Amino acid sequence: MKPISLTNTEQKDSDKQLQAQLIEQGQLPEHIAIIMDGNGRWAKSRGNLRSFGHKAGVDSVRDITEACAQMGVKYLTLYAFSTENWRRPKMEVNALTRLLASSLRKEADNLNENDIRLETIGQIDRFPDKCQRELKEVIELTQDNSRLNLCLALSYSGRWDIKEAVKRLARRVKSGEIDPEDINDEMISCHLSTADIPDPDLIIRTSGEYRLSNFLLWQLAYSELYITETYWPDFRRKELYKAIHSFQERERRFGKLSKDEQKKQAKLHVQELTT
Ligand code: FPP
Prior knowledge:
Elements lengths: L12 H13 L5 E5 L3 H6 L5 H22 L3 E8 L7 H24 L2 E6 L7 H13 L6 E9 L1 H17 L10 H6 L11 E4 L18 E4 L9 H13 L9 H16 L1
Parallel strand pairs: 1-2, 1-5, 2-4, 3-4, 5-6
Bound molecules: farnesyl diphosphate.
Farnesyl diphosphate binds next to helix 2, helix 3, strand 2 and helix 4.
Enzyme class: transferase
Keywords: Magnesium, Metal-binding, Transferase
Function: Catalyzes the condensation of isopentenyl diphosphate (IPP) with allylic pyrophosphates generating different type of terpenoids.
């Protein structure tokens, strides 16, 4: 298989080594979700318009997507436009939707050649027709790809997602298809927009804000959180490697005891039984 390249630059040996080290030293997150934040502040700190920051943010999207595909991360979900983002000035919203449409057009073949599948979650029908058309084309073009699932959250919010899932479930209860007592976590997950995607293992937020901002509220229940001060346009693969390294150092307990504590408790139990 030909080497993966979205950035049209050959991967440096030093980068290959870093990736190999990460793969060797621990488990990679299967699903990484990112709240891309700080484009506006990045642009402002350079005396530029906010749209300049969004454009630079696209380069980070490309670099992070490429690095994830190279390493074998299976799912990458990017919070590209929240339901609340519609409240921004019309000029910025227009610039963002135009940027989305033009980036999709430019990257379509590149995504496809690199075996990356594009998906979306959110209220896509709120976007201008041109944007919807570009999205539909790239989604169709890449639908059989399997190296990496790139999911763009567009006009998305966690509460919207949960509300829609509740409506779907309520309709099925009303029609007698399901008993309310049978509703469990799995059934709720299956009615969310992310039904075909595993929950994120790692959630990254850039620009030093300590909030979830209405992203994947149900799905993030057990995700490891990584927050960096770096603004999104400066968040490139080395920053991603730091986040993955931090993830690998943690022990995910899912509410259970730590492995050390489990061993201690097991020993105590044996002692109790044998004395
Ligand atoms: C947050 O920065 C970023 C966004 C609202 C948009 C993210 C969009 C892109 C990176 C470009 C298009 C994406 C794709 C997938 C092609 P902010 O504007 O909230 O920054 P601030 O908090 O500093 O104001």
